[in-house]
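Throughout our pipeline, every protein is held as a single compact record rather than as scattered files. Such a record has a labelled line for the sequence and another for the backbone structure tokens. This encoding replaces a full spatial description with a residue-level series of whole-number codes. For reference, a complete record is included directly beneath this paragraph.
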Amino acid sequence: MKVPDYHHARTHATDVRVLVPRAYHADGMLLYCDSADRPLLAVVLEIQRRWDSAKRRTWKLYVAQLESELDVDAALLVFCPDSRTARRYRGLFEFGGLSLSLRPFIFTPNDVPLVVDVEVARSNPALAVLSAICHGQDAQVEATFPALMEALRTVGPKAAILYYDVVLAGLPTAARTRWEAFMTTTADYEYRSELLRELAARHEEQGEARGEARGEARGEARGEARGEARAILTVLDGRGVAVPAEARERILGCTELAQLDTWLRRAVTATTIGDVLGG
């Protein structure tokens, strides 16, 4: 390896320590353990929606920390909703140079198979859920619905409610409407969680109230927005997601119902406040 052109070289402290404490937060971390709960493999999970060249170094921190702490191999799994962004990140790690090498597994919605086979969905319900979400923008997403319905029936009532909420949160509006219509007409279902049922009921009640009192529409809209904002904060609190004061004020101050609805659906699966407000 050729050393870059430089002016001079100097010694540096041999202690590896953090002089200014700083916390780095991955989107998720998963441990595969044996029957005695001893870790066998660690996985760092990241969702990357936009380009950030600094990830070439910060992602290494997550992996190195897990391997040092647990004395196991750690893998990095990165999901990029945009294929172009994924290509840039793949290129970023093709050349390691003199730096510590990292080989992340980067995938996009195009890398997730379209699960339409009922038996495949029954044997791997999580893949069926992921498939529907990743192909939510595709015209053929409805082809996944029968298999997805069978996947929900396979996992049991509690897991089915969780999976159903994840699907609702992950599908775009048009696909979500078709999915709910499919379940209503095809399956005798009660998969929606109590939280989302309450939110849906509140939306219906508020819609009726707006129809009966158009003159008070502005005040009702503010009240509805406030209620939606509080629902977002409630969901995040229940999931243990930290909400800084600035982000809390932004959520409570928002009056655009479409934006609040987007944030609420992201909050159902968010691990950081950035997952909700970003993008």
Summary: The mean pLDDT is 81.
